[in-house]
Design a protein that fits this description.
Keywords: DNA-binding, Nucleus. This is HMG box domain-containing protein. One of its GO terms (cellular component) is nucleus. One of its GO terms (molecular function) is RNA polymerase II cis-regulatory region sequence-specific DNA binding. Pfam families: HMG_box (PF00505). The protein is an all-alpha fold and about 180 residues long. The chain has a domain of about 100 residues. The chain has 5 helices and no strands. The chain is flat and about 80 Å long. The relative contact order is 0.09.
Length: about 180
């Protein structure tokens, strides 16, 4: 839906790095198929690059920016607000498990794993995260139950000896009986 006169912005160093990383097809769709997660994995790899490696990508970005300035000398970035807000999908994203998984996959890539070896390692990560999540869910539920029963007991003991114990609890008149 862009106009034919639309001028794209020059890419920054990370965008060039991400494009090259994706073109190398280091992450297969069997490992990860969600582009948000792929970008997060590549971002972890970018953050772990040395300054010398990042400098190469920054120089490429500066060269692309200079070429862009030659091609479009009067270009000036001016974002245009949307007339209507986009419809948000009800999708669970950016969960703790997703972030941990992406970080572990990035570590595997930096360790030099690829292909079948990477797929097997990611399957093991997925299995360990599933058991970790189920362990946390069970422990959290039992801890919450213990805490709530202890809090209820503490709350009742504070007011049981007082003279206001005959007062019924507050009930909103807006609620049905």
């Amino acid at each position: 839906n862009k106009s034919p006169n639309h001028i794209p912005r020059p890419r920054n160093a990370f965008m060039l790095f991400r494009s090259a990383f994706a073109a190398a097809q280091k992450i297969r769709t069997t490992v990860e198929h969600d582009n948000r997660h792929i970008t997060r994995i590549i971002a972890h790899c970018w953050n772990r690059l040395s300054d010398a490696d990042k400098r190469v990508w920054r120089e490429k970005a500066a060269a692309e920016k200079a070429l862009h300035a030659q091609k479009y000398p009067n270009y000036r970035f001016s974002p245009i607000g949307r007339a209507t807000k986009p419809i948000k999908r009800n999708v669970r994203r950016n969960g703790i498990e997703d972030k941990k998984r992406c970080e572990k996959v990035a570590d595997l890539l930096l360790a030099g794993k690829s292909g079948e070896e990477l797929e097997d390692a990611v399957k093991q990560i997925d299995m360990s995260l599933k058991t970790e999540v189920s362990d946390h869910a069970g422990n959290d539920a039992s801890l919450d139950a213990e805490d709530s029963s202890a809090n209820d007991h503490d709350w009742r003991s504070q007011f049981s000896d007082s003279e206001d114990s005959n007062i019924p609890p507050f009930r909103s008149p807006l609620l049905p009986p």
